[in-house]
Each structure stands twice: as structure tokens, then as C-alpha cells.
Design goal:
This protein is of the alpha+beta class. Helices cover about 30% and strands about 30% of the residues. The protein has a 7-stranded antiparallel β-sheet with strand order 4-3-2-1-6-7-5, sandwiched between helices. A hairpin with a 4-residue loop joins strand 3 and strand 4. Helix 2 packs antiparallel against helix 4.
């Protein structure tokens, strides 16, 4: 990943939740989550935050920012965060900003007590043979809601 998408991703990965106004009002231990999906030559990153803010962008530039203005996106985002909060204890503590290898998906749980991550083969998630498959499908529900809500809007790539 290079350029602006990498900068946006790194800013969220290293953000202080209190500076963003997040203090756990949702009752979740997680204030945000990222789902990185790697393909040959490109990484797509879904960012979902406690306040409903949602973005999807690619390492080659472009994406959708500001999906949280749409109620269906906020609903899907909160469901994704609820799922991440359930599975986050299975993740490993991490401070790595590395993107996954092609064919892999990396989840980041942004918790009030630190960041945790999990790397999975996308094929295992798609086949529902990996324990974290519900996160993958929940993340894709956010992406679908985001795409439907922003179809035809200007300013997206």
C-alpha cells in the first residue's frame, strides 16, 4: 500500500480513541475495526468506527469515505463491530502495520486496551472453515451497504 490510503490506514491504526471522542459508550471493548483484503497488486481496506464512520479504500487510490452518513451503513457497521468484539479475544496483540499477502484477509480490532490482529486465508473464510468466517461475511455486509448507499454519488472512485 502506498500514498494516501496507507496514511489513512496508519492514522486509524495508531489513533487514540479518546482523541476521536470514543470512550466506550457502545458497551463494546472495541472502538473500531479494519478488514484488509489482499489481491495481487492491491489491498482493499474497510474501516469501521464506533460512531458509525465507515470507509473503504484501496492501495491504488480511490475509495468511499463518509459512509456513516447512511443509516443502513451505520447499522451494518455496528453489527460488524459487535462481531469483532466477540472474536477479538482470539486475535493476537499486535503493533504491526503490515498488509496481508495476496489471498489473505487481516482483521484489526481496535480496542480500548490496545490493538489485536488476525490473519486468515480468504479461501478458508469464504468456505466457512476458519473460525473467523462470520467476521468476513459481516465485513462484506458493510461493504455491500456502503456501495448501495453511495451509488451515483460524486467524489468516489
Amino acid at each position: 500500500m502506498s500514498g494516501e490510503p496507507l496514511d489513512l490506514r496508519a492514522r486509524i491504526l495508531h489513533a487514540d480513541p479518546s482523541e476521536l471522542g470514543f470512550w466506550g459508550s457502545s458497551g463494546r471493548e472495541v472502538w473500531g475495526a479494519l478488514m484488509d483484503m489482499a489481491f495481487p497488486g492491491v489491498v482493499a481496506t474497510l474501516v469501521s468506527l464506533e460512531d458509525g464512520s465507515t470507509s473503504l479504500y484501496s492501495s491504488t487510490g480511490g475509495g468511499i469515505i463518509g459512509g456513516g452518513a447512511h443509516p443502513p451503513v451505520v447499522e451494518a457497521t455496528h453489527a460488524f463491530l459487535d462481531a469483532v468484539a466477540v472474536y477479538a479475544p482470539q486475535f493476537s496483540p499486535t503493533d504491526s502495520d503490515d498488509v496481508p499477502e495476496p489471498g489473505h484477509v487481516r482483521f484489526h480490532a481496535l480496542g480500548f486496551d490496545g490493538r489485536r490482529g488476525a490473519d486468515c486465508l480468504e479461501a478458508d473464510l469464504q468456505a466457512r472453515t476458519h473460525d473467523l468466517w462470520p467476521l468476513y461475511y459481516s465485513g462484506h455486509q458493510v461493504i455491500t451497504a456502503l456501495r448501495i448507499a453511495t451509488e451515483g454519488e460524486t467524489g468516489q472512485a
